User: What shape does this take?
Amino acid sequence: MQNKITVNDLNAWFGAKQVLHDIDIGIEKNAITAIIGPSGCGKSTFIRCLNRMHEVVPGAKVSGKVLVDEMDIYDSDIDPVDIRRSIGMVFQKPNPFPTMSIRDNVVAGLRLNGVKDKNVLDKTAEESLRKAALWEEVKNDLHKSGMSLSGGQQQRLCIARALAVEPEVILFDEPCSALDPISTSKIEDLMLELKEKYTLIIVTHNMQQAARVSDRTAFFLYGKLIEFGETDQIFKKPEEKSTEDYIIGRFG
Amino acid sequence: MKDRKLSFFLKSKFSGDNIFEGAVGLFAIGVLIIALLLFGELYLESGLSRNAFGFGFLTGSIWDPVSEVFGALPFIFGTLVSSFLALVIAVPFSLGIAIYISELAPGKLRAPLSFIIELLAAIPSVIIGLWGIFILAPFIRDYLAPPLSTYLGFLPLFQGPMYGLSMLTGGVILAIMIIPITSSISKEAIQTVPIYQKEGALALGATGWETIRMSVLPYARSGIFGAVILGFGRAIGETMAVTMVIGNSARISGSLFAPSYTMASVIANEFVEATSKLYISSLLEIGLLLLLVSVIINIIARILVSKLLRVEGGGRA
Ligand SMILES: Nc1ncnc2c1ncn2[C@@H]1O[C@H](COP(=O)(O)OP(=O)(O)O)[C@@H](O)[C@H]1O
Ligand SMILES: [Mg+2]
Assistant: This one.
């Protein structure tokens, strides 16, 4: 299997507090990798290191290498803004831009990249909404506010917004934790479709969700990567005692 | 809540808490009663003027105590235009200050900066007025008005002679006086924008400024709007400083260089010398109008601001 992302010796801090320790991991291309672990173990911090979002927090620091297709995104001549434009991110809370229409939300990233052609924007908006399985529900309301949608629809809108800039990698940080079960299963189905073309990483608190959608699972504890392998193996025959404890619910 | 109130009446022994609670409650009710009495008083006392001029009081532009003809339009005009002018000047500054303090300034600078801006609100109005007369008015006359009339003189707004005391000077003074409130409430509005809202823009590759434009300002818009309205309310009611610099001339002019007169100023200036009953009654009717407008504007602003502050705070999980 080919790796899309290779992480070498990654450490991360908030001020003086180290929250990630020597992470080495390879993220497989066109697959879904789940990150699990108890609250505060560094899952969000880890995926935020993959698109250089960690450093937007004042005092936050990173060391180590993150290679995306052989290119180190922490190389000194790389602009973090460019990295964020090429790696999508979906947050725990849906966060559409409040005053923008549905269409404008989807193409906000393109606009940041300087695309102005109305036809291109319209076409991309439709394609991205289709890919995010939202088109049928909103095609007659494209000029309504993004805030008028339900929580689940807003989250798919945010996925469409991430897809519009044609990223190769999309990071999901607990994308379903604010959603009802039906919206959750829509997002899971969507992720399974998207992995044909994209490399996906999902942080989740929900063990069943990790088991349902992911190909490989990484278990984090206290800022360390404890175990990483095929999802089946992690859930059925974990090698580490702490992984097993976590999965059967002995802590976290 | 109900229980607490009840216990206040039932308990035989008055504890310190109960006395305190009762006293505070009485004060609160007292303030309300005083406000209502004030309103009622203004309404009754303005009866003579309301009967004499009816609705024409609002549209009449002649204010002539000698022949006892009173129309409030010049003052309504002066108040609205000077307050609006103040907003036009103050809003960009206030937003800039609010954005700088809450998003851009280094952490250590934020508190002192807020403090300095708020200190501006503590300067007595009459001191600002004196500064206006001796420094600001000559400055505007000598350095601001000439270029305005040279380059924008084709607009009626910047035509005619400028003697210093003018609508423009009044507007600038009012702007300086409302910047503390508009900027500090805008700042609070901006600080309630949840982190995940900003990160949505950052994660798309927005720069700091793009994030402020796409995410922060739109999210905070109702609070900022409330701040602006609150500033407007403050400008409308401000009396001393503006009376000192606006020129106090009850004539409606299209030029900002011309002197003007505000509702608050005419009451302050003329009340002592008003002799006839109708004259006094007309001034009180202006007072009634001013009270109504201020109360309505403040209520709208408070609603907008509290709606915003009730939105849950930010944070990322
Ligand atoms: N903005 C922040 N400032 C300081 N410490 C933080 C911040 N965000 C998270 N942390 C700390 O970093 C550690 C890892 O957090 P996080 O990556 O959010 O964990 P998870 O997503 O697994 O719940 C936790 O101990 C948390 O308290
Ligand atoms: Mg998290």
User: Anything to note?
Assistant: The radius of gyration of chain A is 18 Å. The mean pLDDT of chain A is 93. The longest strand of chain A covers residues 3-14.
